[in-house]
Amino acid sequence: MLNFTNSKSIDFLEGIYWGLAIGIGILLLVLLVKWFVKKQIENETNKLKEHNLSLIKANNSLERFAYITSHNLRAPVTNLISLTQIQKDKSLTNEFKTEISDKIHECVIQLDSTLNDLVELIASKPGENIKSENLDLQTEFDKVLYSIDSQVQESGLQVETNFSERSQIYFPKQFLNSILLNLLTNAIKYKSDDRKLLIRLRTESKMRETILHFSDNGIGMNLKAIGDKIFGLYQRFHTDIEGKGMGLYIIKSQIEAMGGRIEVESEPGQGTSFRIYFNS
């Protein structure tokens, strides 16, 4: 029978204790490393999934862009070919020649307009020169507002801003100015004749996002009828008002290119509200 008062027995038990402690410690360390590696793999997998979804969205957007622009380019070019073929006929009367020349001129103007749209759309896409920086929202908004001062004065626009919750964002200046400009000019363009135009902007800080709220009291839209078309290229919903239907497409493209998103609420006769989510 062991004598536990014996120093050798105590040393033996201490050895077992420390051996077990070290073994448990190593086991916990192995489990911790396995958990950490698993989490890293899960995070990387989620990032890859998000990146893959972004690529799919970008590819679908590019396909729609290519289809629409090629269609818009094809029409005037086809007309030009037909008209120039007709123009070769030497038996044409002077009156008909003048009519053909006028139509050729119209086709050239249409073609020029489409090419200008292409330049604007391509310029709105992210590239190597697009760099994010810390931007003061009030400062950038005031600059954009000043750039369209004549439209602001003519419309009688009233503006209320509150950027106290988040006054700065990390975002490309070129994109932010484009987004604010398109939102402002749209609000002015689609203002109501029944009331003075009022635009409200405020920021909200939520988790890892900065939300920019932009609302107006304009004529609004029937979103139930419009659906996802609202952010489509060349989509217009007030045909009695001049426009190309490019602004919201450009806004959405620029926001999503930087990992953000945009949401909209609107009611006919009530106005429109946008929520833009920026990654903080």
Describe this structure in words.
- The chain has 280 residues and is α+β, with helices and mostly antiparallel strands.
- It has 2 domains: 68-123; 132-279, Histidine kinase-like ATPase, C-terminal domain (Heat Shock Protein 90).
- 57% of the residues lie in helices and 17% in strands.
- The chain has helices spanning 7-87, 94-123, 137-147, 149-155, 173-189, 223-226, 247-257, and strands at 132-136, 158-162, 168-172, 198-206, 209-216, 261-267, 271-279.
- The strands form 2 sheets. A 5-stranded mixed β-sheet has the order 2-4-5-7-6, with helices on one face. Strands 1-3 form a two-stranded antiparallel ribbon.
- Helix 3 (137-147) packs across helix 5.
- The radius of gyration is 31 Å and the shape is elongated.
- The model has no long low-confidence stretch (mean pLDDT 80).
